[in-house]
Every structure is written in structure tokens, then in C-alpha cells.
């Protein structure tokens, strides 16, 4: 299997296209010319396997249950037939009504789906209207748009029931229902909302259930909404995860920080990287730690408003940051909401063990507030061109692991997953970096290995030569001492304060109460500041291991010299300041080396 980097610095892989249908084209679907124009503009050359199988069935009016990996084109598989059905109806009727409802678990995914509809409806946008009901807009504006009966409404179940209860949203004329990420919708605590929506929908609605896995929750939704659904399951090489090379590293708690520093500073990992940690506090600790070495990263924080999180994802996708640290605690919370029964698709013993893990989690996290439901972190977000996923903190279940590593190796590209595992005998040995969830790492790893082997994948142990990187340990300790608990707390607080200052909703309040704004800004000038140590940003040549030096590119040798390359070149020229003044350049020369007993003439 070959690995190479494409124009986006993302690795690609040459794999056999088992199960693909290269002979199928979008022309064979007899779509509206305006849709075909948008498809061509989006550079869709051929339908993906899930699109090739699902779109023809959907155009026949059948209910669809589609299981395919994230990034395999599932969104377009329901957007295209939904738009086609609406355009066909509008050709025979001028009545305005909401005819398509799309339910997603998170606001981030709602924004992405809304953009997908707008992209593929670009050449008929004046003819149909799409509304994202989760957007940060005043209720008065949303109410006005709803009165105009948008053709497509994209929303979360809780937001939909909120507008249903107030009679501002009508589902009486809905003919297409889509539930995206169906395998996790109920885990977010939307059971009551789903039942309310099912009651409000008319009979005979065409339903799309879109999922990355088939679980008992999907079966439950199928029994509520579907009538003899056509099941589309894609099991090609990409779906089985053959494009992902998986490694696990057993190390001490503090050695996690040592190894991730070496990986990024010596550029042993190339391309964009997603780093998953246990919680938000941990994400800021890791970010501040990496900053000590001049390594830039950004944090995807579930505490921040959805627009801020989407902005972080956009910056990451554009390449402004190559490292994104995601606190996947919302996925853990979602798992506590509802215990899942084993289904035919999953290993019964494995699922039973994972439920045991859930029971041991703190009871105080057993419920999510109404606001928290919409704030997922990793699922459904479109991270583009991710070449590596690092599980800095191992997830608590094998299912979470599968979803995490699914962020890489998309659309025929290759990827790598690296997981740090704390052996039981090393747990609690380094208190400043210890977390409670690491106690079960070895047991979780066994479940992950079993799950991956069942899919035909291998999770290989990787043994770092710690002797080569041990020289960096004192630098790691210096950086960890600088990143205190107070500094982490201040970093989290500062980010929330900045959101308050930039908030449009609070602008009027600050205009009427300038003292509040002044105090808020003044508070930010004080507090715990991380002690930056300039010497940690450079890697001296004597510390560089031989293997690390080979991994570095020729343009960047991993350390910054005392003088820039430009000045060194100028010093060698026969003309210029150095030549004119007899080799004496103020502050640029060692007097002992330049000393001469010869008399000048």
C-alpha cells in the first residue's frame, strides 16, 4: 500500500476499489439540469459507492437506511434526491410549504448540512429556500422566515420541538425526513423530541436514516419512521479502515508529553493532526505545554458558542493551524445518556463490557442540559485532509475509538492513528499529568484490538527508542512546571471573556454599561501567566537523535541559529561593510579569532 502527500499535505493511498461502481455516473440518474450544473461545479466526477446505490433507490421514493463511513459522501446521497423531489413538485404546484425536514444531533453538523444544500441548490436558489433553525439569529427573524414556509428546514430535534410547541413550525406538508448521524441522535437525549416529531409528521413520509454504524438505536428509529426501508451498506476497503495504519504506544503518564513534543518538534508526523484528550482542562494544558516549544495549536472547546467552534474548524481546514486539540468529553456524556443493547452488527461481549465502563463514570455527569445536547465536539464535524489522529488520552470505549480515528483516511486518502496507553503498573506514578480514566487503558485497549481484528484491521504496538529521546526529558519537565493549574484556568477563562467582549448580543449592554466592559478587559490583564522560556523553542544539534535528523526536511533542520542565513551569506561576500572596515564588524566578530600580530599598512 503506497502512501504519498497530495497538494493539501494529506496522505493518499492507492487501494483496490472493491465494490465501487465506476460505470455509474450522475447522468444516469436523470436529474434536473440545475442540479447537474451544481454537481459539475462541485467537481463531483463520479458518485461514491453510497451515492451510486442510495440515490437511485431514493429517486424511486423508497425509504433508505444507509450505513457508510464518515467522509464517504453520505450527505450528498440524501441532499441530491431531496432537492430533485422538491424541484419536481414545484414544477407542478406553486403552493409554498415546508416539504423536507433534516434532523442532526449537533449545531455544527446543522451548519454543514445547510451549506451542502445551498451548494447543490446554487443554480435554483431563487426557486427554493433552506433554513438552518439552529443558527444564532433572533427568534423574531427565524419566525419571519418560517412564516414564509422554507422548503427545507435543517435543525436539531430539540430545536424542532421548541418551534413545534409554539406553533411556529408546521410539519403537515413534510414529504422527506432525514435523520443524519442516526446512531448517536438518541444518545444525545432526544428520545422525547423524536417521539413528538413522529407524532406531528403526516403518514407516508419518505425517510432517510444516515449512519456510520448500525446499532440498536438505528433499529429503533427504523421501527418508528420507516416502511420496508432499503438498506445500503458499503463494505469496501475504505469502509473497513484499510487506509488507516494504527499504532499503540505503552508509556508512562509524563512520557505522553515527552513523546508528543518529540513527534511535533522533530516533525515525525507530517500534515494535519487531530489530538484527542479527555476533557477541556486537559486540552488547554496540552496547548500551553506545546506553546512552550513554539508549536502552534488550537482548541475545539465545547464551552464556547457554536459560531466560535465553527470558526476554529474553518481555520484548521484552511491550514492556519496544523494541530487541533479536541476534548471529546461530550461523546462520553452522550454515552451515559442511554445504555445500548447489543445488536447483530456488534460483539455482544464487547458491548456488555463497555456498559460496565459507563456505570463506573461519575453519576453527576449522567444528564446533559438542553443546551449541552447541541454541543457535540467530534462527531459530524467535517475535518478536512487529516493525516493523523493522536489519542493522547485513550477513549473509554472501543466505539469512541472507531469514531475518533474515522476523522482520517477519508475519500481514498491514507491516514495514521497513534494511541498512548498507560500500563496499569505506571498509572498514578506522575501525579501532575495523571488522569483517572487512564486507569482502565489496558482493558480498553484489549476491546479496541478485538473490535479492529473483527473488521480485519491490525492495531500494531509501536516501541519508541526512549534512549534517543531521553535527552529531551529535562525540557519536558521545564515546560510542565511552567504550565500550572492556575495558568490553565486563566487560559480557559480568558477565552470565554473574549467571547463575551465580541458577543453581538452583549454589545448593547456594554454600550449602556461601559464600566462592565472596562472591568472585563481589566481582569484579563491580570492572573496567572505562563512563564515562557525562549530556549525551549530551539532544538540544539547535540540533542538531536540520528533518526530524528533524518526525518527532518532539508529546509528546516529543527533549530534556529544565532544568526539568520541571510546575514551569514553577506558575511562571506568580498564587498560590503566587513571588507571596507578591515574585517571589523561591530558586534559581529570574535576578537580572539580575528586577532593578528601583523602590522597594517
From TrEMBL:
EC number(s) stated in the UniProt entry for this protein: 3.6.4.13
Keyword Magnesium: no
Domain Helicase ATP-binding: 55-232
GO MF: ATP binding; hydrolase activity; RNA binding; RNA helicase activity
SUPFAM superfamilies xrefs: P-loop containing nucleoside triphosphate hydrolases
GO BP annotations, alphabetical order: gene expression; ribosome biogenesis
This protein's record includes keyword ATP-binding: yes
Domain Helicase C-terminal, residue spans: 243-467
Function: ATP-binding RNA helicase involved in the biogenesis of 60S ribosomal subunits and is required for the normal formation of 25S and 5.8S rRNAs.
Stored PANTHER family: ATP-DEPENDENT RNA HELICASE RHLE-RELATED, DEAD-BOX HELICASE 56
Protein name: RNA helicase
Organism field: Cladophialophora chaetospira
Higher taxonomy: Eukaryota, Fungi, Dikarya, Ascomycota, Pezizomycotina
